[in-house]
Amino acid sequence: MAVEFTHLPHATILGYPRIGRRRELKRAVESFWAGRTTAEELETTAHDLRLATARHLAGLGLDGTAAVPGSFSFYDQVLDAVALLGAVPERFRDLVSTGSTNEATGALSLEGYFTLARGEGDKPPLEMTKWFDTNYHYLVPEIGPDTPIGFADDRVVHQFTELARPADGGQAVVTRPVLVGPVTFLLLSKPADEAPDGFHPLDRLDDVVAAYADVLRALAAAGAPWVQLDEPALVTDLLDVPFDEVADAVRRAYARLATDLSPAAGATGTAERPAILVTAPYGDLRSAAGDGLALLAGTDVEAIAVDLVKGAVPTGPVAGLGNKTLVAGVVDGHNIWRADLDARLTTLETLAAPGTGLGAGAVAVGTSTSLLHVPHDVADEPRLDAGLKSWLAFADQKVAEVVTLATGLTGGRTAVADALAESTAAVRSRAEAPGVVVPEVRERTAALTPADVERAPYAERAAAQQARLDLPPLPTTTIGSFPQTAEIRKTRAAWVRGELSDDEYTTAMRAEIASTVALQEELGLDVLVHGEPERNDMVQYFAEQLDGFVTTVHGWVQSYGSRCVRPPILWGDVSRPAPLTVEWTAYAASLTQRPVKGMLTGPVTILAWSFVRDDLPLGDTADQVALALRDEVTDLEEAGIGVVQVDEPALRELLPLRRADHPGYLDWSVRSFRLSTAGAGTATQVHTHLCYSEFGQVIGAIDGLDADVTSVEAARSRMEIVPELADAGYGRGIGPGVYDIHSPRVPSVEEVTELVRLAAKSIDPRLVWVNPDCGLKTRAYAETKESLRNLVKATQEVRATL
Fold first, then answer.
1. CA 88 → CA 32, 85, 486, 494, 674, distances in Å?
2. pLDDT at 724
3. The model's pTM
């Protein structure tokens, strides 16, 4: 059918939470994995969720054509692009079926789709890493010269039509399909193992763009008036491709997609494509390297969305914007604070002012990013203080803010006067609330000196620690958590509800700790952990005990796949009213003669995995959290604990997307870690852990942490970081992960042996530790025992050769 041109609505968002208000998708996916439901039942649940979400958003005021984004995914939007293109790595080619949109590539079933994410047998899954500066993880495509690429999966078309022409005969919603843009897809990909030296996935741009052109034709034929292509790679210079090459790729891609295809503009003829909205969230399009806004304005796309929360508000006219809609992302999609609507409306009025703005053909109001990163609805939080709730905006409240601002921009301030006044009052209430500023906390951080972040030289520490701990070569340990069974979760929930007394709860947790310690001794691990059965989450557990935080009941956010977390809300100055972990760690240590690690979450990670305050520099808040942890380290030492691990898996995650901003961030982030650990004695071994990041960009910072032992994710990347550490002259303990815990597969003894040997070959084996990639919380006990048994056996085999 022909597509008639329509302007992008004045109010829109870039994406919406896809897990469901009560995590319906998570439960459905995990039930399918467990074999309790069929693929058809999972598809039905997903369809119902998509339909309910679209109608809900239309009811919130996003009622214009294409105002609602079609941003659903069963697992991950980058994996969706792999499936769309049929770009399946060679080891998974047997999962591809015939009868797809493109016979040359083939389509994945749902089973095959999830296998790429989770692995199977001797087939490791796609590598996982962080999505820009968020706590969301994406799966890394593997692209080689011969990787099949074409329009292989038309699921995106069916998802559009099921909402535009619903089978139930109810309200239709004409959505805007959302895809990862072709340039970003390739820039986030890694070369396949078989790719020759010098190959870059961007070399396959023409093939990917040709496939996207077929997708756009199919969407146009289905009646889609708009499509959204997300190109966040344009706001970063961390992808090791010069801006000139990125700019050339953008021009080539959008010349083919926007210029060469007949657009949805006009009543005559047949459109070959929908109108195109290109988004660039998570940062500023303009940098010293180049002007991404001018680059996109120079293409023939119909609309551009810019992040005006992380990015600066552009000034002056931009050539090429005169025939485009500028979607101004003034509502923060990455944090949960209520917007100052008066200030945001002023920004919008400036952008839209004739003769003084950017010269855009139209200005629409949007979110800075997808709302994937925030919970659904503040109204779902009955336990939050009413005053604090008035400061917050979750996804539904952000939609309302977008609609209000669009109404004010098009209808004038008088049309939204009450909403502006209410917003101003909430902003003022937050600034004046008790606990937002605590003088004693501010005085303590102000009194810090350089000596507070220094320890004795490493050689002195290493000798004292070996004398105390007496560890063998290649010591074995785990990262901290052990499987959290349904029984553990039920016990913890019953205690929270008041159905178990404190004594009953303590008895149950001690029994679990004793079982975990006994298992580790049986397996032959060298440094033990208590298993963390009392912890609901590695950040939430601490937030529940620190002043300055609150936690939610239903504030779930997707981290990866079916994994969801409830980020705490950091609203005020932070302090520690009482010890946090000492009781449980000391009990575990009383059960064994082997060293037991105290387990803490580091200040950077606590901030990264919380919704942080935006009224104080992040480095100042990090120092407050670090001092609370410093006090905890002191108490652990006094309880006789000789090994303390302070996890910082988010160190790389918060790294600014522009290199020019790295020094300032690394200065305060490294300082806060050292502030939390530098009070430890010389004979106390300090560990840290980092996972699922591109570590090469922060090797200097890893060294600067001055931890005695650093464990890092390395299994999926097959020890990729180890040569980088060796080249950098890293000279302290290092534990590159040899067991990928984000997959249910059990690594063989031979596989682990190979990885341990790779590590010991690149780095002095006297410095190498052997451990999993991450905590074991999400794994089942059967696979955990077998995997750890193989890990210990492999280590013993390599030890025998030293």
1. 22, 8, 35, 45, 43
2. 81
3. 0.91
